[in-house]
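Q: I'm a student working through a structural biology exercise. My instructor gave each of us a protein and asked us to get a predicted structure, then write a short paragraph describing it. Mine is MI domain-containing protein. I'm not confident about reading structure output yet, so if you can add a plain explanation after the tokens, that would really help. Here is the sequence I was given:
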Amino acid sequence: MKRSRSTVSFQGGRVYIPPYNLALMSNDAEADETSLHYQRLTWDAFRKGINGLVNKVNATNIKNIIPELFAENLIRGRGLFCRSFIKSQMASPGFTDVFAALVAVVNTKFPQVGHLLSRRIILQLKRAYKRNDKVQLLAAVKFVAHLMNQRVVHELVALELLALLLERPTDDSVEVAVGFVTECGSILGDLCWTQSNGYPAVRKELDLVEQDDQLTHEISLQEEELDPENGLDVFKQVPQFVKEEKRYEEVKKTILGDESGDVADSDAGSEDEDDEESDEEDDEMKINDETETNLVNLRRTIYLTIMSSVDFEEAGHKLLEIKLEPDQEMELCIMLLECCSQERTYLRYYGLLGQRFCMINKIHEDNFEKCFVKQYSNIHRLETNELLNVAKFFAHLLGTDALPWHVLAYIWLTEEDTTSSSRIFLKILFQELSEHLGIHLLNERLYDPTMQDPFESIFPKDNPKSARFAINFFTAVGVGGITESLREYMKSL
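A: Happy to help. First, here is the predicted structure for MI domain-containing protein. I'll explain a few features afterward.
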């Protein structure tokens, strides 16, 4: 049986150390966080951790990888971070858009990391072009294209690159240029007002950064002195190591929330007894938080849980584990609705999640009913995209009977009581209900004898003008089949 060998990295290379001695050294080093060996161990652990995360990331699990990535000290290890990403992208160009999406998220919090990676990839591109290394050039060009799609790199680089490749065109340079425009032609068309066509700039599942949060680095191919800062890839002792690590812990908490510390501390179980004693003391003395810090942390926790879950079942399970105070259940519904409204297109994920909560607890059903009333009363404040998402969300809850249909009593369908925004909302709502249930089943719901009082507001029969407006409205939006009773009413007049 072959015995495993243990090595430790030093400035001049790697030295073999027997496992027993290595364990003793590690224990001694862990006792002194300021020691050189402890810092070297954390450096090696960071390198292995980054490589492991980069090697397993894909479009499906990227939202789960992001919190793990921010748990590492990306400021100290930004050189290793950039080297690992560039190396992995060269080995697997098919995952370039995934790597670029991950870099874009990190860039929003640590622009110096995104700027360093942009400089290095530009330098790699220029070296490959000078060496006529087509394989490396294609990979570098693809990475630049997707970094530009994610708005990490400025579009000026694209124009300079195309000018460089097509200044003295050859078969290889034209092939590289065509490949480049294919990857980023869509964003070039938006930013440079050209008629470039290509694949969509960013896949929906990799569109993780809001436009207002994007930080774009302006780097030119013409710059002669681009510093790759290769020294960051080499281990160096930090004089104030403990202080720097604590500073990054504070930064990490602002990004991931306070709950990130619970995941990072694997030794927390040994302090259970002390925690129980402190909990008893906290019960005796409760402090009122007037700054709403707890509320902000709760919303951050709910948001991160919703955005990092793979499907609605996982999200529902995690959200139910969050301990809510009696007056905090509404925050869960509000955050779910806000997350849904901020998506570029409606995702059924949110409707299924809202449906699950309504079915589990009557409190959530009542809260979503309150949200419906509040959203409809403020519908004029929503942008068109938000309005469409909210309408489809509530249509899903109504269509699955997760939300009681008497909420429609809050809608008065008359010319005086509706606005352009509310009419768009109602149009999408009833079109979705008609598509989900079918016009026959929708009629059965709306003409249920026990529900006629709540529905008088959407089928007004108090005067012919209101009835005629409702008939014309439903007919115009394609669901005129639900207006039979109103038509009979008009005939009787």
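A: Here are two points you could use in your paragraph. The mean pLDDT is 80. The two ends are 97 Å apart (CA to CA). It's a good idea to check both against the output above yourself.
Q: Great, thank you!
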